[in-house]
Amino acid sequence: MYIPYYHADVFTEVPFSGNGLSIFLPPVELPADRMLRITQEMKQFESIFVRPRPEGTLVDARVFTVEEELSFAGHPSIGAAAQLHALNRAGETEAGWIFIFPQKSLPIATRKTDYGYSCTMNQGEAEFGEPLPEAAGKPVLEALQIDPKDRDEKYPLQVVSTGLPYLLVPLKRNFTTANIGAEGLSEMLEAVGAKFIGLVDVDGRSMRTGDNLGKVEDIATGSLAGPVGAYLVRHGVAAPGEEIGLVQGVHLGRESRLYVTVSSDVIVRGGVVLLAEGRLLCP
């Protein structure tokens, strides 16, 4: 069986920048363990598997890291939507899609540009946990070996979600060198209602995240951008309706630009550059 495969750079307008993505269009539904193994073979932070329905705009989608399936993810969604626009709506300047994940549906709009595609996804309303008391956040900070003096005390540790719950940790110093993972972090995050950590430089409008063991850092994370934008609005750093520019991956040599607008819903926008295509020989 041949599976069409595509490669894109997401949250960028420049080739070989932003966050790389593997996109697969399997002709039949694949078992989860097969999709996980394919993702592990490609060694991208995430891969996405999409199957457009006959209706044309509805797309069944599954996204995997090298460790597990996620309920949804941002950069794979807009990257795959741009690729579907190129394949199925090439004669149109604009197109719309609804990506249907196992636990969430995600409306996405795509528009042709000189560099590729500009894509916008509606992540819905943000959900906020209560600001964490100091005692509850202390084990996480200690596990990440974050000096309390590096914490930006003007803003709280808080769990925010638009589909994936992140514990947001605002830092004012040593932002790019802080750890993003540690042994046992997953269990600590689960105890406060989060799945991943999100380090935030509020003044610099920058963010970082990765796997919970800290082995791999993500370069551009749409599912984190929405919560960070909502957090900035909630705490008066940005205004409702303002387009908030966020930066990620600069210190890794893969600058990514993510744009968030928060009103009643959280809207995340970014560029996509299509790079390559081929066939996966999948026995």
From TrEMBL:
<protein>
    <submittedName>
        <fullName>PhzF family phenazine biosynthesis protein</fullName>
    </submittedName>
</protein>
<dbReference type="GO" id="GO:0016853">
    <property type="term" value="F:isomerase activity"/>
</dbReference>
<dbReference type="GO" id="GO:0005737">
    <property type="term" value="C:cytoplasm"/>
</dbReference>
<dbReference type="Pfam" id="PF02567">
    <property type="entry name" value="PhzC-PhzF"/>
</dbReference>
<feature type="active site">
    <location>
        <position position="46"/>
    </location>
</feature>
<dbReference type="InterPro" id="IPR003719">
    <property type="entry name" value="Phenazine_PhzF-like"/>
</dbReference>
<comment type="similarity">
    <text>Belongs to the PhzF family.</text>
</comment>
